[in-house]
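Hi R.,

Here's the chain you asked about this morning:
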Amino acid sequence: MVKNDHINQRILRDLSKDGRLPNTELADRVGLSPSACLRRVQELERSGVITGYRAVLDPVAMGVGFVAYVTVGLNDHTKEAQEGFERAVALYDEVRECHNITGTVEYLLRVEAEDLIAYKRFHTDKLGTLPQVHQLVTHVVMGSPKDERA
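And the predicted structure, written out as tokens:
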């Protein structure tokens, strides 16, 4: 198990903000030599604390002008219904996140589309036609004053 000290926490915070941060700059920020910093980063990677690095994309530049969170209630509360639903939404490019949640519904989706018309098409022609789906409630994102997803 990797130690969760203040230096590792600072390394993780800085890398989560900029995964391309050069090791020398990261080392300087956290007060370590470059070799000691690199060893810590490698250990965080080996241990699975750091699971990967990715590019953060500008939704507008990608043609995404509409974002919504959709709660999904299923007809049936069986393992087969859940697996069938999960297999189906895994194929939809519009679904950027799928979370199995507790409460009155089974799933929370983050859906991205070009615009409202494209979202309506997705809602009606794809999500709404799945045999497992009983209820859909859309929550349109009007702004995101804080979003720390990488």
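The beta strands are 66-74, 95-100, 107-113, 133-140.

Let me know if you need anything else.
M.
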